[in-house]
Amino acid sequence: LNGNFATNGNAFTLNSDATGTAMVVNNGGVVNGNVTVQRYIDPSLNPNLGYRHISTAVSGQTVSNLATGSFSPVVNPAYNASAQPGTTTPFPTVYGYDQSRLATATNNLATFDKGWFSPSALSDALNVGQGYTALISGGQTWAFTGALNNGTQTLTLARNTGATAADAGLSLVGNPYPSPLDWRTVASTGLSNVDGALYVLRSNDPSNPYTGSYGVYANNVGTISPILAQGQGFFVRVTQGQSSGTLTFANSQRPTTYQATNYARTTAETRPLVQLSLKAAGRSTGDDAFVYFEQGSTEGFDSKYDARKLPNPSGLNLSTSVAGEQFSIDGRPAIGTAQRVIPLAVGVPAAGSYSLSTAQLLNLDTTPVYLRDLQAGTLTDLRLTPSYQFTVSNASALITNRFELVFSPQQALATAPAALAQQVALYPNPATKAVFVELPANLGRQAVTATLVDALGRSVRTVSLPAQGAVAHQLNLSELATGVYALRLSTSAGVVVKKLVIE
Fold first, then answer.
1. Less Cβ crowding at N or C end of the chain, within 10 Å?
2. Whole-angstrom Cα distance, residue 452 to residue 498?
3. 197: how many CB neighbours lie within 10 A of its CB?
């Protein structure tokens, strides 16, 4: 638009279909008059029923305007007061989200799910900038007719405190414009007391309409694009410790050229970064978590660098675990020479076989990265073995004390004096299922890291031997292949290396 455009009462439609979605380029002019804005529902991940997050680019719309040729929205306010919302008849197919309900709703849903509510009537407004979710199949097209949203739109968002704090502060908002929205610009210019992360629900299980996973983006890291499509609803969160925040949308955040919304980095990644993916056996889709290192971030939560975990309806959840909190994107201070250990949290929907694999391992050429399984006693070099298989027998709780990411920057280590090394006993040798390590009293006064290295130089098991003087330590050798190994003991006097044969 190089000036204003008037429809003069003529029909004007911004088309959306499988090939693309029309946009209004904000170039100084406005569209005057009613416009029909279409929003095609991409069926590529799930052509069947599924929840889709939607926002309208047209003002003056109501819930009834969500109807398509084969979808009729259903609302039922009885859902909101029910002690068992899942039994409500008729069951709503359209919902908004109100995080204040987490502290007031007394139903049997999980804390996060208490926030969902059904509109009272089909005549309820679809508020500008607010997101909604609808249970609808793919391949359909929404169409909204009215005046296009334009200019600054400011939302005031709230956050509960107290018992619901871990789940509080989330708001389902939406792109208010008839064009894509660049979240990078929103994050830098439009947030006050609101975290820099955004979450987009992906309906990706054709067999289950009620499941799906949340794509996440923060600080140019994530599984989704920072370019939000026209009509896209998404979650944001008021920063912990704040009771409210503001989200300001502005025309300056709208791209002025046609933008694809598939994920692509805007610049080449230069930061050390690991992307791990958790998948169930036989499934192609999974859940991802990121750890990266950047100057300015801290070991705790930073609203600019990190994204707290938003649990997936699918029950498949991977995150880092920091002081009882889970992060899907975890920014850490610049990597140095000290070893860094980052606990992981794994959630699965059912007992069975799963895998943890590296989707990306970037800019860590001189830093070995390992996946430690404390239950199995294994240490896997992710560069040599990018996928690790494991089983879960009890899926009822989040697994927070089994897996760790270990970053071990290479550094020169002194060798312990030969006379002192001779005082370290390793028996029996050869061994089968276990071996004992006996340290002289002066080495055993402090904790010692023991690493078992195979003939190819790979670290296959790492354990910490507690300070217990000359009392012998037992090392478990189960599940290790027969062969010749080197046991490296990092002591206060230097590194002791002992040869070990496993039969």
1. C
2. 10
3. 26
DSSP state of 185: H
State the greatest distance between any 2 C-alpha atoms of the chain, in Å, as a whole number: 96
290-299 as b/e: b if 16+ CB within 10 A: bbbbbeebee
DSSP 8-state assignment for residue 231? T
Q: In the prediction, which pLDDT does 100 show?
A: 96
Question: For residues 358 and 109, what is the distance between their CA atoms, to the nearest angstrom?
Answer: 34
Cis peptide before 333 (omega within 30 of 0): no
Q: Is 413 a residue whose pLDDT tops 50?
A: no
Per-position b or e across 387-418, b if 16+ CB within 10 A of its CB: ebebebeebeebbeebbbbbbbeeeeeeebee
pLDDT at 412: 43
Q: At 412, which amino acid appears? A: A
Q: How many helices (H) and strands (E) does the chain have?
A: 3, 39
Helix (H) or strand (E) holding 388: strand 387-392
**Three-state DSSP state, 418:** helix
pTM comes to 0.81
Looking at 237-389, list the stretches that DSSP marks H as alpha helix, in order from N- to C-terminal side: none
Q: How confident is the model at residue 298 (pLDDT cuts 50, 70, 90)?
A: very high
Determine the pLDDT at residue 266.
53
CA distances from 208 to 135, 223, 258 (A): 11, 22, 34
* Amino acid at the residue 43: P
Write b or e for each residue in 30-54: b if 16 or more Cβ atoms lie within 10 A of its Cβ, otherwise e.
bbeebbebbbbbbbeebeebbbbbb
Q: What is the DSSP letter of 421?
A: H
**Banded pLDDT at 260 (limits 50, 70, 90):** low
Residues 71-98 pLDDT 10s: 999 999 999 999 999 999 999 999 999 9
DSSP label at 27? S
How far apart are the C-alpha atoms of 188 and 181, rounded to whole Å? 13
Alpha-carbon Rg for the chain, nearest whole angstrom, is 27
What is the separation of C-alpha 417 from the centre of its chain, rounded to a whole number of angstroms? 48
Nearest Cα neighbor of 164 from 117, 210, 113, 212 is: 113
How far, rounded to the nearest angstrom, does the alpha carbon of residue 468 sit from its chain's CA centroid? Answer: 41
d(CA 70, CA 204): 21
